[in-house]
Amino acid sequence: MPLIQIFAKPPVEGKVKTRLIPDIGVSSATAVYRYCLAFTLGLIQSSTLDYEIWLSEAGEDPLFEGLNCRIQQGDDLGIRMHHALNHRLQTHPSDTVLLIGSDCLDLSVQHLNQAIEHLSTHDLILLPSYDGGFAMIACRVINRSIFDDVLWSSPEVLQQTLTNANRLGYRIHLLESVRDIDTLDDLNHYPALRKLIEFH
Predict the structure, then answer these.
(1) How far apart are CA 173 and CA 166, in angstroms?
(2) By CB neighbour count within 10 A (0-12 exposed, 13-18 middle, 19+ buried), where does 61 fall?
(3) CB of 35 within 8 A of CB of 196?
(4) FRET partner for 44 with CA separation of 20 to 30 A, picked from 101, 102, 104, 122?
(5) Residue 127 domain boundaries
């Protein structure tokens, strides 16, 4: 059975979308993140797939009320992702897991379904992002070394992850690239976000 894992942060001012703060301010950056997070939660809930939220830290927010939330474990993103993925696959070895972030407005239910379909013949599915990273990793097996020496938040993330996956002998499939929201240029591709920051 597929499980969606959503990596998210509590939408606390000054702790989310920090790369946007110099351009649009703390309040607007927080509003952008909250919009993206609400979009992601709505998308996953509409998919009818099972899901759980992995928070960077404990936080009280109405968006998480009544939802299955866990706390990420580890000192860097690779360790935290491996812990979450491995947690599910160790307890449910016949399952597949799709781990997504919470700042990609291009993500669709179609992407989720494509990943699930390709996992029947592949070990690892990645949804690349235009900035050189990835917006989703889906797998049916996971080895901690897949994230070895990955320079997070760099343009090399996808390629370094692929190099590790190839070394592990994984059967890999890449979906069509999407955009996530990190910079002012990214915002300009989404009129709803541009309109949102006008009111903050």
Answers:
(1) 11
(2) middle
(3) yes
(4) 122
(5) 2-198
Residue 193 sits in a domain whose CATH number is 3.90.550.10
Starting at the edge strand found earlier in the chain, the sheet holding 50-55 runs: 69-71, 50-55, 2-8, 96-100, 134-139, 124-128, 172-174
Give Cβ neighbours of residue 176 (< 8 Å, ≥ 6 apart). 128
Distance CA 121, CA 43 (A): 25
* Chain segment 7-42, per-residue pLDDT in tens: 999 999 999 999 999 999 999 999 999 999 999 999
State the average pLDDT over residues 136-159. Answer: 97
> What's the total number of domains in the chain?
1
Tokens standing for 46? 């509409």
What average pLDDT does the structure give for the chain? 95
| Number of residues assigned to the chain | 200
DSSP secondary structure letter of residue 129: B
Residue 200 has pLDDT above 70, yes or no: no
The predicted model scores a pTM of 0.96
Tokens of residue 72, six digits: 């990420």
pLDDT of residue 60: 84
Nearest C-alpha neighbor of 160 from the set 74, 75, 72, 78: 78
- Burial (Cβ within 10 Å: 0-12, 13-18, ≥19) of residue 182: middle
